Amino acid sequence: MAISRRRILYAPTNIGKVDNKGWELSAKYKQKFTSSLLLYTRLYYNYIYAKDRLTDIALHYIPRHEAKQYTRLEYKNFYLINSLQFRDKVTTSGFTNDLKSYVVWNTFIGKKMKFSKFDIELFLKIYNISNTSYQHIVNYPIPLRNYSFGLSITI
To answer: What pLDDT shows up at residue 95?
Structure first.
């Protein structure tokens, strides 16, 4: 649990006894349609309820529901990856407002090549496509839509 020592600085504090209940589910699917076309997807879901036994209050910054989806489509040396993440609202310590729940969508596209003894990968990553405004910690917003372009060379 993180509590405010000053206005901005947070430090973990051991609160002692905690009741923690929950479960998680995951599923994956892989299909090779042809020798050059592959689909792979994974789904995750977590439910957790953690509370302080003394105060009977839910632990701060622990979402009750969280879900993730990852899908990768490969065709020859090209790939397309899409991921979605849902995170439920969380309570915060020392603040009156909860952090809102959110959904974030990311996508990556790339091409892998072989040149002589080199493995080369050219890629474009787009994070937060839907331009969702969200925070993991109060007053520390996560960047809005942003891009990454790269070239990877492995010898």
So the answer is: 56
C-alpha separations of 19 from 47, 100, 129 in Å: 14, 24, 37
Alpha carbons 112 and 122: distance in angstroms, whole number: 7
Q: How far apart are CA 54 and CA 43, in angstroms?
A: 35
Place 61 in a pLDDT band, splitting at 50, 70 and 90: confident
pLDDT band at residue 64 using 50, 70 and 90 as cut-offs: very high
Structure-token pair, residue 97: 């407002």
Indicate the pairing of strand 118-127 with strand 37-52. Answer: unpaired
Beta-bridge mates of residue 5: none
User: Is there a contact between 120 and 151 (Cβ–Cβ < 8 Å)?
Assistant: yes
CA 108 to chain centre: 14
Global pTM exceeds 0.85: no
CB contact at 8 A, 4 and 10: yes
